[in-house]
Every structure is written in structure tokens, then in C-alpha cells.
Amino acid sequence: MNFSLFDDDDLPPSGPQPLAPDTMGATLLRGFALPQVASLLAAINEVTAAAPLRHMATPGGLRMSVAMTNCGPLGWVTDGRGYRYARQDPASGLPWPAMPAVFQALACEAAQAAGFPGFVPDACLINRYEAGARMALHQDKDESDFDAPIVSVSLGLPATFLFGGAARADKAARIPLFHGDVVVWGGADRLRYHGVAPLKDGQHALLGAQRINLTFRKAR
Ligand code: MD6
Ligand code: FE
To answer: Would residue 101 count as lying in a domain?
Structure first.
């Protein structure tokens, strides 16, 4: 039996570092979420029981390879009418599940560690990647307040994060993100293109064959 706090493919926590050499606005907190993982997974199970993960459609009618749901007052949705934040889950007509306290606390603490004190998210998008799922290069621009940061938590299988520039055609840096890593993104680089490379097959000790990403935003 191995009682190490960290799985072999997880890196131990370390202090804040820039996500890429040419950014001041995106901070990587390696392993920041590891102490909260058990509570985070329990909370994810509660949210997804009430608002199941589903493959939404892009405005152009394509099925997204990433399955999504939300919690908190607002949820990010996409369908034939476009991208937007909505107070209700379109699948049920009910409000999104409340944001679990452990989510709220982690997002606030991570933002503070990266130099954004007082972050209070009103939306948490939950993304589930299975093998082959990817997120094409995009900008996060459906929020009304670009001064607030975005806090992004990676759980489960590792992924390659693509960190591009101000234009879609700019070459993207490739940054590995592991179980427990947190990225805080704000300031000057808030509108840079970014995405996730197709998830590689694998088995994570706690999450199995998937990667879960929590993305906290102040949408309004
Ligand atoms: C993901 N993340 O990591 C997708 N957006 O699965 C994002 O699209 C993202 O991680 C804005 C800020 C941080 C992110
Ligand atoms: Fe994004």
C-alpha cells in the first residue's frame, strides 16, 4: 500500500507561476485543489444528479464533444440560439443547483492566491472530457465584467491546455494540466484564445477514464 498524498501522475502543490512565459494575466497553481478533492468530487456528484451532464449543441448545430452542466445562479448554455448565461437549466426548466460551499471557497482562495481578492463567482460550468473530447480555440467573452478573473480547476486525467494569443490564428502554447491544478485567468490576457487538445485515453485512480474541469466566472 502506498500512502503518498499524491498519485504518480499528479504534481505536488507549488506557488503561483505564469501559465506561459508570455503571460502576466494567467496564473497556474499546481496542485492547489488537491486538499479539497474528496469534497469536490462529492459535490460534483450532487450537482450532476440534479442537473445531469449533457452534450450541448453549438449555434451551428454541432454536438459538443465535451459534456456540460452548471451550478450557481447562472449557467453557461449553448444551442441554436447562441451562447449565453441562463438562470434555468434548459433540460429541466429548473434553476441550476446551488453552488456548493466547497466550490465557492476554493474559487475565492485560488483567486486570492493569484492576486484577485474578493472574487465571488455567480456561475460554475462543469465540463466532462472523455477520450477524444476536445475544446476548440475560443475566447471567453459571454461575461459582462472582464475585470473579474476566471478560475479553472482540473480533475482526473491530464489534458493539454492550448494557450493562444489575441487572434485565433496566433500560435498556441501547450501546457499540461494535471489532477488538482488550478488556473486563474484575468487582467490583460482575459480575452486570449484558448482550448483543450483531444483527451488521451487513460485511467485516473479517482476519476477513471475522464477529466472534469470546473470553470468559475462572474457572469453578471
Ligand atoms: C477546460 N477551460 O479547461 C476548458 N476558459 O476544460 C476553459 O475554456 C477556460 O480553463 C477560461 C479560463 C480558463 C479555462
Ligand atoms: Fe474558456
So the answer is: yes
Do the domain assignments include residue 166?
A: yes
- In this prediction, residue 188 carries a pLDDT of 85
150 lines ligand 1 (CB under 6 A): yes
Strand partners, 183: 28, 152
Substitution site in 152, 160, 174, 177 for ligand 1 pocket (most atoms within 8 Å of beta carbon): 152
Residue 5 lies in a domain: no
Check pocket membership of 214 for ligand 1, CB cut-off 6 A: no
pLDDT at position 111 is: 98
Q: Write out the residue range of the structural domain in which residue 189 sits.
A: 17-217
Query: Which ligand does the CA of 83 lie closest to?
Result: 2
For the chain, the domain total comes to 1
Q: Across 80-208, where does the E strand assignment appear?
A: 82-86, 123-130, 135-138, 150-156, 159-163, 173-177, 182-185, 194-196
Does some domain include residue 2? no
Q: Which pLDDT does position 10 carry in this prediction?
A: 60
Which stretch of 23-27, 110-114, 134-138 has the lowest confidence by average pLDDT? 23-27
Nearest Cα to 32, choosing from 95, 108, 84, 120?
Answer: 108
Give the pLDDT of residue 1. 47
109: domain CATH number is 2.60.120.590
